[in-house]
Design brief:
Blueprint: H1 9-14, H2 28-41, H3 46-53, H4 60-68, H5 76-83, H6 86-98, H7 100-110, H8 114-125, E1 134-135, H9 136-145, H10 150-166, E2 175-176, H11 189-195, H12 211-224, E3 234-238, E4 254-255, H13 256-261, E5 265-266, E6 277-281, E7 291-293, H14 297-300, H15 307-320, H16 337-349, H17 363-376, H18 386-391
Antiparallel strand pairs: 1-2, 3-5, 3-7, 4-6, 6-7
Length: 392
């Protein structure tokens, strides 16, 4: 399941230095020869390089998938209810028991809760059942040759050659996502090299067939991305009828004592980490679900860029650790795609940068909505409504 850049693609991009004028395009065979020369210059033998590229072919289906990757328009409640089925809950609990020793080790070494990785495992590959059927070597070389993001994918090809050298990658048979991600939690070759863990002790890191390898590697990856050991990531809260709604959102982190002074309180139990700061998340405005996002929540955005996906994955992680079903509240209805495009056009006419007029409630549109709500004296919760559309 992918929205915007695929999972872990952004993380890899953030940790890969930009390469000036990365070679791309031209004849595919000539491009492959250039990759071979670069691989040998990095110390790989001619036999290794020839063996890796022997079966590599350009894959037009990969390019088609890259160009049609979509961004969804479902609101958080609808999306979460679709993704978090009873079956996924039951299988998550079952896998938590089955791999209890692995999850205990992950918590000791990386400080990551089982729920976090179980949620990613569920959403990325349905607990390993759907890992993708694109030939990974073909996908990576095809996307490196394509001139849209060669600086991202060329290093992945070279990393895959190293995995091949280690006996952990078969260029003819290894398959995964269209963007080159491999295994149960979908990691790119460079990330596997840097964060791969032999969780089952067989001397190899095999993310497609070994759940301990995949889960341990995912835990180490999260730690690498900045996960703070033993800290929570999300907690559902109740909000008062009135407050300064402009403080909600991803841009404002406040001590929990300040949120509490404004009337924000845990929906059940106590604050999970009263000494930390948190951000008030209102995915459907002040009348809908409400959460406090702790610092670890930010790490999710280095795994995936989609706000709704990230919030759903984070929430599912809390559910798997025993949190109750969230209170959906009674939010104002979401605008349809046509209405959202009309709103974006009006916001742009008022001088706001909302990016492409695409009917999608992204960060730019939310910021513009909040600004106009403040200007018009409406509750500035960044949730677009028919009232705001009419006022504009």
């Amino acid at each position: 399941m992918r929205f915007h850049l695929p999972a872990l693609l952004l993380a890899s991009f953030l940790t890969t230095p930009a390469i000036a004028q990365v070679p791309c395009g031209g004849s595919f065979s000539g491009f492959v020869e250039g990759l071979k020369q670069e691989a040998m210059a990095q110390g790989h033998s001619r036999a290794t390089v020839d063996g890796f590229f022997a079966s590599v072919r350009q894959d037009q289906k990969v390019l088609a998938a890259d160009r049609r990757q979509g961004v969804f328009t479902l609101d958080f409640t609808t999306f979460a209810r679709r993704l978090i089925s009873k079956n996924r809950m039951d299988r998550g609990r079952s896998n938590a028991q089955k791999y209890a020793a692995t999850f205990d080790r992950i918590e000791r070494e990386f400080g990551v809760s089982p729920g976090v990785l179980l949620a990613f495992w569920a959403f990325e590959t349905d607990y390993g059942a759907v890992q993708g059927d694109f030939n990974t070597a073909n996908a990576l070389v095809t996307l490196s040759h394509d001139c849209r993001r060669p600086e991202l994918f060329r290093p992945q090809v070279l990393a895959a050659i190293t995995l091949y050298e280690h006996g952990d990658f078969d260029p003819a048979r290894t398959t995964g996502a269209w963007a080159g991600e491999i295994g149960m939690v979908q990691m790119l070759p460079k990330d596997i090299l840097e964060n791969g863990v032999d969780g089952d002790g067989d001397g190899h890191v095999l993310l497609k067939s070994s759940a301990p390898d995949a889960l341990m590697s995912g835990g180490k990856m999260l730690q690498h991305l900045g996960w703070r050991a033993g800290e929570p990531w999300l907690q559902e809260v109740r909000v008062p009828a009135t407050m300064d709604w402009s403080l909600a959102g991803l841009d404002t982190a406040l001590p929990l004592s300040q949120w509490q002074a404004m009337g924000v309180a845990p929906r059940s139990g106590q604050w999970l980490a009263p000494g930390l700061q948190g951000k008030l998340i209102l995915p459907q405005g002040r009348k809908g679900p409400a959460f406090i996002a702790y610092p670890n929540f930010d790490v999710y955005f280095e795994w995936n860029q989609s706000f709704t996906y990230v919030l759903t994955a984070a929430y599912f992680g809390t559910r798997l650790m025993g949190a109750p079903v969230f209170d959906a509240g009674n939010p104002d209805p979401a605008l349809g795609t046509g209405q959202m495009k009309q709103l974006q056009q009006k916001l742009a006419a008022h001088g706001h940068d909302v990016g492409k007029i695409d009917g999608i409630l992204g960060a730019g549109t939310r910021a513009a909505v909040r600004a106009e709500q403040q200007r018009l004296g409406l509750p500035a919760d960044a949730w677009p409504t028919t009232e705001l559309l009419g006022r504009l």
